[in-house]
Amino acid sequence: xxxxxxxxxxxDADECTGCGLCVDVCEQECxxxxxxxxxxxxxxxxxxxxxxxxxxxxxxxxxE
Length: 64
Ligand code: SF4
Ligand code: SF4
Fold this sequence. Notes:
With 64 residues, the chain is an alpha+beta fold. It has one domain: Alpha-Beta Plaits, CATH 3.30.70. It has helices at 21-25, 51-55; strands at residues 9-11, 31-34, 37-40, 61-63. Strands 1-4 form a two-stranded antiparallel ribbon. A hairpin with a 2-residue loop joins strand 2 and strand 3. The structure holds iron/sulfur cluster (2 copies).
């Protein structure tokens, strides 16, 4: 697991294929698929680890 940070994920809905890998990898359960697109459903629980961004095969998630 990546180190906690102040960064938070942004998901590019146009790039997301709905594969769900980011949803599965997030141990904080911050992400879910909404209409087959990854969405941040619990941003308050995000620790900024970046695992979701690292897992995404199409680089749809950026940490900033
Ligand atoms: S940065 Fe880490 S905690 Fe935050 S949504 Fe991504 S995987 Fe989950
Ligand atoms: S890993 Fe990437 S492509 Fe797959 S659901 Fe998440 S944001 Fe979408």
